[in-house]
Amino acid sequence: MKLLDSLRFRIAALFRRSETNAEIEEELRAHIQHRADDLERSGLARAVAERRARIEFGGHERYKEESREALGGSFIETLIQDVRFSLRLLRRSPGFAIVAVLTLALAIGANAVVFSALNGLILRPLNVPQAESLYGIERASDKDPSQSYPDYVELRDRNRSLDGLAAFNVNQVGLDTGENASRAWVYEVSGNYFDVLDIQPYLGRFFHASDEHGSDSAPYIVLSYAYWHTHFRDDHSVVGRTVQLDKHPFTIVGVAPPGFRGTLLIFSPALFVPMIDQEQLDGVNLLNARGDRWVMSVFGHLKTGVTPAQAIADLKSIGSYLEKAYPKDEAHMSFALARPSLLGDQVAEPVRAFVTGLMLLAALILLAACANLGSLFAARAADRSREVALRLALGAGRLRILRQLFTEAVLISLMGGAAGLWGSVILLGRLTVWNPFPQFPTYAPVSPDAYVYLAALLLSLASGFLFGAVPVKQVLRTDPYQVIKSGWTGPIGGNIGRRISARDLLLGVQIAICAVLVTSSIVAVRGLMRSLHSNFGFDPRNAMLVNTDVTMAGYRGDAVPGMQKRMIEAMETIPGVKSVGLVGQYPPLWAGLNNEIVFADKTTDLRPANAAADAGLYSISPDYFQAAGAALLSGRTFTWHDDKDSPRVAVVNREFAHRIFGSVTNAMDGYYKMRDGTRIQVVGIVEDGKYGSLTEDPTLAMFLPIPQSPSSESYMVVRSIRDPQQLAADIRSKLRDLDAGLPSYIQTWNEAMNGALLAPRMATIALGVLGAMGGMLSIVGIFGMAAHSVSKRLKELGIRIALGARRKEVLRTALGRAFKLLAFGSAAGLVLGILASRVLALVVYQATPRDPLVLAGAVLAMFLLGLLATWIPAQRALSVDPLILLREE
Amino acid sequence: MNDQAQILPGTLDLLILRAVSLGPLHGYGILLRIGQISGNALLIEQGALYPGLFRLVRQGLLKANWGTSENNRHAKFYELTTAGRKRLREETDNWNRLATAIASALAVQPEEV
Questions:
Q1: In whole angstroms, how far apart are CA A186 and each of A174, A478, A584?
Q2: How, if at all, do strands A297-302 and A162-176 pair?
């Protein structure tokens, strides 16, 4: 109530401003008149009496202002006054204003962009009701969220801590709506999926758990809103229509609401189909395969009153029951809970670490910018010390002067913030529609929302106050008497050339921060360059990848390898094609690693705990190694005679040979076992390569002949030096001749590698941008300092030149300090940057700071920055004309 | 230069309230009254009175009306409100307690400790 009254009073006072002023003026005048009357009575002349009365009254203006303040309303009034004054000052020094606003715009813009990513990927929950109680279940041992279908069913039916457990898996299908068959991304979801999420259809209905009656019993499709909008042109009559999925009839029953993009933040499907129909879409029935963890993620709402710890204990008890009941298939069945939006912690943790790291770097940039502006501001305050002294002498309060300085700082920071935000909104708009993987429906949920705007505003205000606070001590210490008497306008304390001032320290810190950024960006760029030229174990140049899934055209069982063989033979007839290979599922460095456990030949108890190792599994055609450019070290590769009816054979990589058999010679013709007990003979050894990611440790890999390890989804590697576009056209027409209903996706292997290289590329781009910004900030900072120190000492320099100082000496006097700071700051930053690069090595392959090129590059970069920043001030110092200078004074 | 004492911070308000409690006064009149009742022992810069005066008005302790002074000049006259009267009583008690305490503390002789 009191606050409200006071506010009303202030606002009212603002409107009555002129009236109040006049009233105060009149009252003070009446006082002086009364005093003059008294003095006149004591015998003074009227004029003398009035003069005496005025003197006795004291600082008229000051008391008037204090009175106005006492009456309230002056806060806003003073603010308006200060803003006007600050704008006038800034207009008078546009160079300073532009540099300051641009510096902040860059720093705050960078922060807004990174914060948007943080907000979109980590802070913002899925767009479903009660997203905060939604948890995914992942294995505690390896943070893997995938489950087998039978395990999912057990977890769903036996747990007592979740309100329903839903599951989904990402798959690709051939969708035939009567025109050409096309590829579409689907979520295979459990029947209760939409009910667990508690969302309502936009059109038609959803399918439910009650629609499921065993394998392939629910041929229903729910379209995503976006797919309905783009592919069915908002056609309301689509509900009830029957379309073909992989040559099976499915009925469209409904359309999902517009805001719902599925339960993965960055991967939105075109349609949703019941998981129970899995066999029709995959060609093999996996619903009873207890050891095959193909269900991507399971999740549900925690029941009210159940804590995550209780839920984990509940799930663990189910897990130990499963381990006992199915010892052959189950191991490591204790669970953890994680947000489902990024596929559990296996993906979420590195993303979180990376974005948080970027946020820290961006904050460093902002801090450096503030340090920069702080010293600029201090320099400005020093230049204005005469004005400040004059105002102090005229009776202005120090607080009042500080207020004006802060108003100016905040004004600049708000302008910078607005400009930065504007830039970042444009950039984010581009990022949101940017899709680095044209084959996948990825989507970067980074469009700015209210939080981003709020964060930008708060950061602007905070940085305004931060750098505005730098000159405070200076103003508080100003002694108007000294300043006006001596006409001295240097920094308060007269410490030029003597001890280390706070400003020097700030600049040093800032240079160090920038050197850290420059060093780490060079480390990242160098690491990326190396990883692009490192040995992948295959050669992605001059090779096309042709992705097909023959189930999309209705091939099943034994028809699959036959069709794949025909496709390979068709490719081989294209002129200019050197070799054609085929790899099942996906090639190395594409979409992670398809791991299988393997056992030593002598192991008889084949439970997962007794496994010898995890090895990546690739099903390949005979000519795959030749087409991929992988070198066979010994033994043979496959022939088409290595089929279902002949003995099981494998080619393993050198790491596999060493780890399982001890050496390459031991491995040749040796045997090992798969999970189902099949004995496999090693017939060849191939060189090591990269399989899951560029930064992985040496990984075991085994290659099986595709007829013995069938996979309907496959990538053909077509090696040819022909122009990719023409080649792709030929490939497409050959495939059409073979089966017009088989959708395919054709790209160069280099393009496909973008996925594997995305993380290091993003890291490099982000660091490169931040490094460039850091470099720019250093230039501005050093330039400001050097220019200031030269302009302060122009007279001294003039005298020195007049007395015959040489250019070197003049430069040393003028810029020695700037260079010293640069050297110390860079050295400190370099050391810190090298330490920080260890963290980088986790993301960027071979990011080693102990690379002489990196060190030399960083030193050279800092040296160039220094040279660039001090060039103009140095020219100015050297061109001082003593005559003109001395005449001026 | 003279034997006037600087007034303690915060006591100006009390003096104003006391001066006005003896009858409505204009600004200059208040200064004169303070001088009169304190035996001219206190030094107050004349202008410093006004910010204090306006603060009291804003707090609702004083009310002001324009009127004509004894010199036949237009002037603003201040008088106590009910809240002001109450505040004066409280502040007076406070002050007396403080003054007694300080006086007795200063009057203590070594042998009394």
A1: 10, 71, 20
A2: antiparallel
Contacts of A74 in chain B (CB under 8 A): none
Percent of chain B clearing pLDDT 70 (strictly above) = 91
- Which residues lie closer than 8 Å to A88 by C-beta, 6 or more apart? none
pLDDT tier, A590 (very low <50, low <70, confident <90, very high otherwise): confident
Higher pLDDT, A820 or A730: A730
| B35 in contact with A, Cβ within 8 Å | no
Statement: residue B52 has pLDDT above 70: yes
DSSP string, A261-323: --SSTTB--SEEEEGGGHHHHHSS--TT-TT---B-EEEEEEPTT--HHHHHHHHHHHHHHHH
The pair of three-digit structure tokens given for residue A661, joined into one six-digit string: 């058999």
Contact A31 B28 (CB under 8 A): yes
In a mutational test of the B interface, the residue from A21, A34, A75 whose CB has the highest number of chain B CBs within 10 Å is A34
Please report, for chain A, how many H helices and E strands are present, in that order.
Answer: 28, 21
Give the residue-averaged pLDDT of B66-71.
Answer: 85
Q: How many angstroms separate the CA atoms of A490 and A793, rounded? A: 9
Binning chain B into helix, strand and coil, the percentages to the nearest 5 are 55, 20, 25
Any A CB within 8 A of B45 CB? yes
Indicate the range of A54-68, A94-108, A204-218, A701-715 predicted with least confidence.
A54-68
- Judged by DSSP in three states, B45 sits in coil
Residue A11 distance to chain B (closest CA, Å): 14
If one counts every other C-beta atom within 10 angstroms of the C-beta of residue A310, the result is 14
Closest alpha carbon to A857 in A517, A529, A518? A518
Would an 8 Å CB–CB cutoff place B63 in contact with chain A? no
**Percent of chain A whose predicted confidence (pLDDT) is above 70:** 92
Distance from CA of B98 to the nearest CA of A (A): 27
The label of the residue with tokens 């065993």 reads: A214
Position A242 pLDDT exceeds 80: yes
The share of chain A scoring above pLDDT 90, in percent, equals 30
Rounded-to-integer distance, Cα A469 and Cα A524, Å: 36
Q: Closest Cα of chain B to A124: distance in Å? A: 48
ipTM of the complex in this document: 0.87
Tokens read off for A288: 């009873």
CA A112/CA A34 separation, integer angstroms: 62
In tens, the pLDDT along A367-382 reads 888 888 887 887 777 7
Structural domain of residue B12, as residue ranges? 5-112
Q: Output the six-digit token pair for A873.
A: 């001030």
* Total of domains in chain B: 1
CATH number of residue B91's parent domain: 1.10.10.10
Tell how strand A248-255 and strand A242-245 pair up: antiparallel
